Amino acid sequence: MAEKISNKSVFFNPFSKNNPVVVQVLGICSVLAVTAKLEPAFVMGISVIAVLAFSNVIISLLRNTIPTNIRIIVQLVVVAGLVVIVDQLLKAYAYDVSKQLSVFIGLIITNCILMGRLEAFAMGNKPWPSFLDGIGNGIGYAVILVIVGFFRELLGSGTLFGIQVIPQAFYDAGYVNNGLMILPPMALIVVACIIWVHRSRNKELQED
Amino acid sequence: MNKQSNVYTIIYIIVLVVVVGAALALTSMSLHDRQQANADADKMRQILASVHLSAPTSEIGTEFDRYITSQYIVDESGAIVSDNGAFSVDVAAQSKVEPAKRKLPVYECTLAAGDVKYIVPLYGAGLWGPIWGYVAFNSDGSTLYGAYFAHQGETPGLGAEIEKPQFSDQFEGKTVFHGDKFLPIAVVKAGQKPLNGEDYVDGISGGTITSKGVGAMLDSSLTPYAAFLSNLRSK
């Protein structure tokens, strides 16, 4: 760690300038899979925030004791343990959502954002900044998930959180839900649109 | 202490695994009852769905008790072997037992109008994983009143369409007895029909293997009930 980064920028950078999804393009597979509806996108976002924050703190606490040659294994064990706990909690308290998310909760283990943050940040920083980093990156990920979920559910099903928001009068006038929005490719296209908007507002992110 | 030594590494990982293992075991044990209650409520919801009833998750238990007036287990000859416990029968495990030894659960559902429907579970294989469902018979033991299908991981938009009402509503009014012959409903390509005069529904375009799986599931899961349904018919 050559330069000292302030806690504030550790927390806020991942929201926009260093967003894990639209700038680093990590964790795309779950964006494809869980954003057809807003509710699973929301729960997935919360789950990733929780897992990321706690695994960051745990790894940060252990960072001076972990033998270098097995550090990835240790990180994986901690993440896997936390993910299974989250999965069990969802099964107990949000059964319907856990059925929809099914394998994707398990796949948080392999979400590149987690390993990336653990290896790049938590292994070299104190627990409190690591906690902020985890929350910040988790929120950065969740925000994108919710934005994508918002557009896909609104345009694909005409609902938000399962509640009908497009009035019946629209359908009577010939409006049709866009079935394409429900299919995975549209998640990528929506993410691409977000990246486009994001880069045109942040000139320094544009490549030549 | 040398943190890079083999001994340290091995001890470290052993301690870590034990701690994480204990934490997981503790979580699993403390949440087990709640998870089981959720799974049961989900099963009740599916059973009620086959007779076109639905209820919010919090009321599913009371609705289930109101409509499902009795449940029992029959054997292949149609005789009742147990007056209760149908709900706890593991249909997936029973489908691997040879038909003569199977425990066959039946749920009797009394609707508001006093009609009695007989609900039986189905279990089979789709393209990617298990598929299951419930079908409800009218009291004549032959005409279907409703059906519900579910799957674990069929292809969205193709095989997964079996859980949609567009598919399951086709089963309403189909019969499984033709004369004295027991012919569980076939699932065929749109435009075709089975040669033996069996009642049929249209499969799902692009979901051929899942559709065939539903047909095979109806065959294998309903055939053991033939005697039971035949008894109902002659009542």
Describe the structure.
The complex is a heterodimer of chains A (208) and B (235). Chain A is mainly alpha-helical. Chain A has one domain (23-200). Chain A is 65% helix and 2% strand. Chain A contains 10 helices and 2 strands. In chain A, a hairpin with a 2-residue loop joins β1 (159-160) and β2 (163-164). Chain B has 235 residues and is of the alpha+beta class. Helix content of chain B is 36%, strand content 23%. Chain B contains 6 helices and 10 strands. A 6-stranded antiparallel sheet of chain B has the order 2-1-3-4-5-6. In chain B, strands 7-8 form a two-stranded antiparallel sheet. In chain B, strands 9-10 form a two-stranded parallel ribbon. In chain B, a hairpin with a 6-residue loop joins β5 and β6 (144-151). The longest helix of chain B has 44 residues, at 6-49. Chain B starts with 5 loop residues before the first helix and ends with a helix. The interface between A and B is medium-sized, with 26 and 24 residues.
Write the topology of this structure.
The complex is a heterodimer of chains A (208) and B (235).
Chain A: H1 7-12, H2 28-34, H3 38-62, H4 71-93, H5 95-101, H6 103-106, H7 112-120, H8 127-157, E1 159-160, E2 163-164, H9 168-172, H10 184-201
Antiparallel strand pairs in A: 1-2
Chain B: H1 6-49, H2 60-67, E1 68-74, E2 80-82, H3 91-94, E3 104-110, E4 116-125, E5 130-137, E6 144-151, H4 165-168, E7 177-178, E8 181-182, E9 186-188, E10 200-202, H5 208-222, H6 226-234
Parallel strand pairs in B: 9-10
Antiparallel strand pairs in B: 1-2, 1-3, 3-4, 4-5, 5-6, 7-8
